[in-house]
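Budget justification aside, the reviewers requested a transparent look at the raw inputs and outputs of the sequence design task funded under Objective 1. We therefore reproduce one unedited record. The lines immediately below are the structure tokens for a 351-residue chain.
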């Protein structure tokens, strides 16, 4: 929040005598009225978040170059941050609450174990043979998989394959940092424990019965394989030919609630040639193209997303998606701030 004058009808800072202003400053006091309209603008919030497109084709060579320039020991996490210029690149945020980064792991490398207060997810972009161990569960990483590393859980990344592996990190870091609640703890290599959430929760609608279990994990499912999400979308589209938004949400299979506490995650299928006008809602959104080709219209701009491209849209803004393929579906991974807005009671759907 920044105090600055912007109002025509309310008194300005300059209207006040300098000695009075100096006295206020000395006492750590600020008059509200010159800044009232800035912090409570009429009808719609001021958003720093700007519609921004990051092309994978353009960033990939730079990420691979980081692999040559900076050894993993000097990076811990070798990430190029997808920063929104509206916030200032140095803020490293895609929106008010969302952070995006493209992470590179080369064959044989290990990104050491740590845990932190912000929640993270990974959306795997390319490469085979990498894995991430979260809370003792070793999760293989394949294109389109979503892997959670919720707040407080140990995680480390390794790579037994032969080609570079890249994934998209989505964290609520900007929010948790703003709350002055962001920190990490280093750990040692985790012992892999038996059990795989993606196997135990293999099908929606039936979940394991906890007959002998004393306590349940807060995050029972950490890996959401793309093959399952994709086939759910195809089944849903086939079952409901009239359904406009063919979308599934990543949820906690025990509670049916959001997979994580602050950010929401979804997969959307655009039918061949489909144009989908999304309702205007308060949370900012991120779109990452898993498969196909799609145009995103937002704030008078048109981004053509090729595979592995990412873009973001501010909240309270109309977004239209268009599948550029006439004969095939396109698949989009969506991250948004909906759980946060709903928990805080500020969520709006303006239609
Ligand atoms: O992989 O643990 O993009 O801790 C930023 C912070 C990734 C990670 C990021 C992190 C990680």
């Amino acid at each position: 929040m920044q105090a600055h004058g912007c109002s025509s009808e309310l008194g300005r800072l300059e209207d006040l005598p300098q000695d009075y202003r100096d006295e206020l400053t000395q006492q750590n006091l600020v008059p509200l009225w010159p800044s009232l309209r800035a912090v409570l603008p009429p009808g719609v919030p001021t958003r720093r978040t700007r519609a921004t497109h990051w092309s994978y084709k353009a960033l990939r060579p730079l990420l691979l170059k980081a692999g040559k320039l900076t050894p993993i020991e000097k990076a811990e996490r070798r990430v190029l941050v997808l920063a929104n210029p509206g916030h200032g690149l140095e803020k490293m945020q895609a929106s008010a609450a969302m952070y995006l980064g493209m992470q590179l792991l080369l064959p044989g490398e290990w990104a050491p174990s740590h845990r932190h207060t912000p929640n993270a997810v990974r959306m795997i972009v390319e490469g085979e043979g990498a894995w991430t161990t979260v809370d003792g569960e070793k999760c293989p990483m394949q294109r389109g998989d979503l892997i959670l590393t919720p707040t407080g859980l140990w995680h480390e990344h390794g790579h037994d394959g032969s080609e570079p592996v890249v994934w998209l990190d989505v964290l609520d870091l900007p929010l948790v940092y703003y709350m002055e609640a962001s920190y990490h703890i280093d750990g040692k290599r985790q012992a892999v424990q038996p059990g795989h959430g993606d196997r135990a929760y293999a099908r929606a609608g039936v979940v394991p019965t906890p007959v002998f279990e004393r306590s349940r994990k807060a995050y029972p499912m950490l890996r959401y394989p793309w093959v399952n999400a994709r086939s759910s979308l195809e089944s849903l589209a086939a079952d409901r030919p009239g359904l406009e938004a063919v979308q599934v949400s990543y949820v906690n299979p025990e509670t049916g609630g959001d997979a994580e506490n602050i950010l929401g995650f979804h997969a959307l299928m655009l039918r061949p040639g489909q144009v989908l006008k999304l309702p205007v809602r308060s949370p900012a959104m991120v779109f990452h193209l898993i498969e196909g080709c799609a145009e995103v219209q937002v704030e008078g701009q048109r981004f053509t997303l090729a595979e592995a491209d990412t873009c973001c849209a501010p909240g309270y803004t109309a977004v239209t998606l268009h599948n550029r393929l006439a004969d095939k579906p396109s698949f989009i991974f969506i991250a948004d701030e909906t759980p946060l807005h709903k928990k805080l009671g500020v969520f709006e759907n303006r239609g």
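The first strand starts at residue 52 and ends at 54. The helical segments are 18-26, 36-39, 56-69, 173-178, 197-200, 226-239, 338-344. Computational costs for records of this kind are itemized in the attached budget.
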